[in-house]
Amino acid sequence: MSFPLASIAVYSSVTFGVFSNTQRFISQQRYGDSNHAPALSDLIAASMVAGVVSVGIGGPVDLIKIRLQMQTHERMDITSPHLGPIHCVSSILRQEGLAGIYRGAGAMLLRDVPGYCLYFIPYTVLCGWITPEGCISPSPSSVWMAGGIAGAISWGTATPMDVVKSRLQADGVYLNKYKGVIDCISQSYHSEGLKVSGIARKKLLLGINL
Question: Are 95 and 49 in contact (CB under 8 A)?
Fold first, then answer.
């Protein structure tokens, strides 16, 4: 847990910062005022940029977290165990090169780009609805409520692709099972059907081979 805990603050602040700054930049270019209320197209563009940037930072973080979580005592004799995040990164770079650090990046793009659109847009709209007229900014309770609802919408739709991303990142530790995103989706659907999302996340949490 040390690596995701140490990096989550940076990851979240950069992603949210990119969204806010991109939104203000678009408003400045389109309306001449960075504080102008954004249109739906502005929110979509800013959310997509934030999603792309999140993959660049979050891809390696997720990969290392999954690789370390997959290490179980029963399987320590199958592969050389990673001694920590730094050792995990060096092992991946040595065995798979720079591309190995971004294993599953395609699936993560398909998760995060629409996922952040379905987070930031509902969040912005809900904050606008909840905030009384005349208030400069939403109250803390409005932010919490809007953030919670937007988070549920986002992850409810992003979970299937998150499963694909996790399976691709876990692939290659004990065996190579998938040829790519499409192959992973196809194999997962044919073997487990539409319930694959719930089953796979339970297995991942329990450290069972995906």
Answer: no
Ranges of H-type helices in the chain:
2-31, 40-69, 85-96, 98-101, 105-130, 140-170, 181-192, 196-206
Of residues 150, 149, 128, 148, the one with CA closest to residue 139: 128
Cα separation, 132 vs 56, in Å, equals 37
Beta strands (DSSP E) in 75-208 are none
User: How many helices (H) does the chain have, and how many strands (E)?
Assistant: 8, 0
Segment 43-70, tens digit of pLDDT: 999 999 999 999 998 888 888 888 877 7
How many CB atoms sit inside 10 A of residue 178's CB? 20
Mean pLDDT of 28-45: 92
Angle at 165 between CA 65 and CA 159, to 5 degrees: 100
What confidence tens digit (pLDDT) does each residue in 152-199 have? Answer: 999 888 888 888 888 888 876 666 777 788 888 888 778 777 666 555
pTM score, two decimals? 0.78
CA 201 from centroid of its chain's CA atoms: 14
Q: Quick one: which of 69, 79, 62, 91 has its CA closest to 163?
A: 62
Buried b (16+ CB within 10 A) or exposed e, 58-77: bbbbbbbbbbbbbbeeeeee
Report the Cα–Cα distance between both ends of the chain, in Å, rounded.
20
What gap in Å lies between CA 168 and CA 162, rounded to an integer? 10
How many CA within 13 A on the CB side of residue 116? 24
